[in-house]
Amino acid sequence: MKTSHIQPIRSFNRFYTGILGLLDRYILTNHYNLPEARVLYELYHRDDLTARDLISLLQIDKGYLSRILRHFGKIKLIRKKRSPADGRAAYLELTATGRKEFELLDKASNEQLKNLLSGLSDKECESLVHHMTEIRTILLKAQKSNS
Amino acid sequence: MKTSHIQPIRSFNRFYTGILGLLDRYILTNHYNLPEARVLYELYHRDDLTARDLISLLQIDKGYLSRILRHFGKIKLIRKKRSPADGRAAYLELTATGRKEFELLDKASNEQLKNLLSGLSDKECESLVHHMTEIRTILLKAQKSNS
DNA sequence: AACAGATAGTTGCTTTTGTCAACTATTTAA
DNA sequence: TTAAATAGTTGACAAAAGCAACTATCTGTT
After folding, report:
1. How many interface pairs between A and B have CB atoms less than 8 angstroms apart?
2. How does pLDDT run across A46-81, given as a tens digit for each residue?
3. What is the DSSP string of A55-103?
4. Structure pTM?
5. Which chain B residues are within 8 Å of A142, Cβ to Cβ?
6. Does the first or last residue of chain A, that is N or C, have fewer Cβ atoms within 10 Å of its Cβ?
7. DSSP secondary structure, B7-22, as one string
């Protein structure tokens, strides 16, 4: 690892922070904030998650999460099922309403991104995806060798 | 732009949100939060910025910014110079203390990133930078054609 | 010059977001 | 059976952010 690479990477990070801010900002105006949206995302994509799982997945405070989940329970987006194996834990799942709600959110995010990319050609988009995949591979390796 | 590219890009965005969170989280424990750090960054790197400039640069609420600046004034990180041309506006600049303070923060960020990348070879780092540059070019083009 | 509207920045008030520590209930291991 | 650990909840609070009203100044129009 060369020190000379640090600056350009940090510069990219600042740039990409802006991009993500742009994409998030628009979506999260109403209804849900970022942590809430992330919770919905995880619950939509994985089964048998507990609060504990979400805490380590999202790096979120357990008190804060508990309130988010209570709120989601109240507005019928999620259901809790006490684990038969462990009476303290509960498996979380989206209700049909919850799934629909996530899909709306997801669709809006797609639209927002499409909008940003609308001026690009197929080739450019493909290239974008390619570079992203590469970055991901490299950073995953970095993370792995760090743990 | 093909719709099929949307999903992998959003997946990368989630991944990179995690990376940025990792890097930010550690740095910003004490002293400054993200908006504050960004203000310091801008003031360190550019002269003759006004509050207005920071608002459009950082997309931050002017009331919130005003308080941040007042705070920075109190702890002697910045100085305000009334613009001779416009009595409402003030040019902002870091004091010597402010510059030192930013440099500490900046150094810590560098260390944090170095740490993340420590397992990578020079080649891999170079490749990382390359892909980042490409992404940036493409996204800048996308943004431009959107405005 | 005099006024109307725009702009830079500040301030008070409020809401949202997030943190912390104490607590209950349950489980695990000795 | 008891002590320590763990899952989750709750209350109290602090930090972060947003909104709208306000002051001071500037710009353009008549």
Report:
1. 162
2. 999 999 999 999 889 999 999 999 999 999 999 999
3. HHHHT--HHHHHHHHHHHHHTTSEEEEE-SS-TT-EEEEE-HHHHHHHH
4. 0.84
5. 116-120, 124
6. C
7. HHHHHHHHHHHHHHHH
